[in-house]
Write a structure and sequence with these properties.
Order of helices and strands: EEEHEEEEE
Strand content: 25-35%
Helix content: under 10%
Radius of gyration: 14 Å
Number of helices: 1
Largest sheet: 4 strands, antiparallel
Structural class: mainly beta
Mean pLDDT: 79
Shape: globular
Distance between the termini: 24 Å
Strand order of the largest sheet: 1-2-3-4
Length: 125
């Protein structure tokens, strides 16, 4: 594991970017609030594993989550932005159930993208 991100605004997710090209998203809220079933960090409930698109090895890559209050169909939008070693930034729709979907692949970088961060109140990188 080389980087993680706790979503302070919502307090719900722990994002772990690891050198095996997998981004894991854990249910931090449940871990904090259900100590009976989550007694240690190894009991953290895994919500999603993102394996497509981004490349992640040998360099720390940071990700962030954007949560909107409502979308057109009255569902909460949940987006994850991440950098990548392949000169792209990626945005995933992780609110889609049962599995997340690559939402957008952003080009234009001349080198690896080390970090991607959303604006605090708008879905702007």
């Amino acid at each position: 594991v080389n980087s993680n991100n706790y979503n302070h605004e919502e307090g719900n997710f722990l994002i772990v970017n690891s050198y095996d090209n997998i981004i894991r998203i854990y249910d931090w809220y449940r871990y904090i609030n259900d100590r009976e079933s989550c007694k240690s960090l190894s009991d953290l409930p895994l919500l999603h594993s993102l394996t497509d698109g981004h490349q992640h090895s040998n360099y720390p890559i940071k990700s962030s989550i954007f949560t909107s209050s409502q979308t057109d169909n009255n569902q909460q939008s949940l987006l994850l932005a991440t950098g990548s070693n392949d000169h792209f930034a990626y945005i995933y729709d992780i609110g889609r159930q049962p599995s997340p979907k690559l939402f957008q692949k952003l080009s234009g970088h001349l080198d690896r993208v080390y970090s991607a961060t959303f604006h605090q109140t708008s879905p702007i990188l």
